[in-house]
Design brief:
two-stranded parallel ribbon; binds NADPH dihydro-nicotinamide-adenine-dinucleotide phosphate; binds the ligand CC(C)CCC[C@@H](C)[C@H]1CC[C@H]2C3=C(CC[C@]12C)[C@@]1(C)CCC(=O)C[C@@H]1CC3; Rossmann fold; endoplasmic reticulum; 3KSR/17beta-HSD; signal; 325 residues; 9 strands
Length: 325
């Protein structure tokens, strides 16, 4: 919506969504305020390898070029709020950090996808990684730049991520781990693709009340807490609260020259106590060595998963042939 308000003439949007009914509703909403806008839809479920491959194929048939790819889809399933850790945090010197990152007070219950991957990892990271790899021909063009924009989080914590368990099978903070892996992956992509004109940046929308976070507490409690959160903005500017404020950095990045952005920075949407939104970079807690190791592991996993998919296709082809005989 913000992109269209800025430039609805020259912009062609393609919304890649898992739920076509919701996608249609979004498209209608955008067309109501911007009747001349070009808004296309594409069905894609980032948690499913075959869906991502199909969507990428379809995209390449429809379009010759992709200038901006917003990698925003994300889940935080079954969030559990640790009241004890929260109360302890309230009386510690870490209290502001707790409200801006959610560190130490949230855990999740992860699931397994049909491909056999951890659901949070597959949805938040691996599906997007595959998509970027598949869309390389439309993203990399001589003499032109393209940009990947990842929605990461202030909850991306190195303590929750391990190179020995990139899917976070063993822990209880898959969300945080997937977001830290996002930061690492963006750096590795810059390292590999900048020469071909493809740049990657990471943003953090701050804390917003959305479908993802609303279930953490009962709805009436959020309502009651709203004045408290607005007051807290005096101490931390990370409480963006609305999606409009949260999208500030996503929009800001669109306006920048990709070459001018720092691959080690995360661009934060922030909102001041007076309600003004702005974007500020913060250095990420990442290094090139870990980022390259993660990239190698993702490439290996991609190879394994493609192998499995081929075997499945062969099996079903064989079953069909046997049926015919
Ligand atoms: N809310 C917050 O405070 C923060 C959010 N973020 C990040 O912002 C991003 C947006 O989240 P937010 O707006 O808060 O939450 P929402 O749940 O409102 O949005 C998440 C979006 O991702 C889509 N999505 C989820 N899973 C899949 C999938 N498998 N395939 C395709 N699309 C999928 C959802 O589709 P559908 O409509 O079908 O559900 C939805 O549109 C996420 O990456 C999140 O991690 C980061 C920091 C803070
Ligand atoms: C008075 C209390 C009951 C208030 C509790 C508030 C917390 C539930 C929230 C405070 C900071 C929030 C936060 C997130 C979730 C909800 C809080 C912990 C995120 C972890 C959501 C997902 C993200 O990507 C980052 C957010 C950081 C802040």
């Amino acid at each position: 919506e913000r992109l269209l308000s800025h430039n609805s003439d020259g912009l062609q949007l393609c919304l890649a969504c898992r739920n076509m009914q919701r996608a249609e509703a979004t498209r209608s909403h955008l067309l109501t305020s911007h009747p001349a806008a070009q808004v296309d839809l594409l069905q894609m479920d980032t948690s499913s390898i075959s869906s991502v491959l199909r969507a990428a194929q379809e995209f390449k048939l429809r379009y010759a070029r992709l200038d901006y790819l917003y990698l925003n889809a994300g889940i935080m399933p079954n969030p559990q709020f640790d009241v004890k850790a929260f109360v302890k945090g309230l009386f510690s010197s870490n209290v502001i950090n707790m409200f801006s990152t959610g560190e130490g007070i949230l855990t999740q219950k992860d699931g397994i996808t049909n491909d056999g991957l951890q659901e949070v990892f597959a949805t938040n990271l691996f599906g997007h990684f595959l998509l970027v790899r598949e869309l390389e021909p439309v993203l990399c063009h001589a003499g032109q730049t393209s940009q990947l924009v990842w929605t990461s989080s202030s909850n991306a914590l190195s303590s929750t991520f391990s190179l020995d368990d990139i899917q976070h099978q063993k822990g209880t903070q898959p969300y945080s781990s997937s977001k830290y892996a996002t930061d690492l992956l963006s750096l590795a992509l810059n390292n590999r693709y900048n020469k071909q004109g493809l740049y990657s940046s990471v943003i953090c929308p701050g804390f917003m009340l959305t479908n993802m976070t609303i279930g953490i507490l009962p709805f009436y409690l959020w309502k009651l807490l709203m004045p408290f959160f607005l007051m807290l903005r005096i101490f931390t500017n990370t409480l963006t609260l609305t999606t409009y404020n949260g999208s500030e950095a996503l929009f800001w990045v669109f306006l920048q020259k990709p070459e001018s952005l720092n691959p080690f920075s995360k661009y934060h949407s922030l909102t001041s106590a007076l309600g003004n939104s702005y974007t500020q970079p913060h250095k990420m807690d990442i290094n090139m060595e870990t980022s390259e190791s993660l990239y190698e592991k993702l490439l290996q996993l991609e190879k394994d998963m493609r192998g499995k998919l081929k075997d499945k296709e062969k099996e079903s082809h064989h079953a069909k042939e046997t049926c015919r005989i």
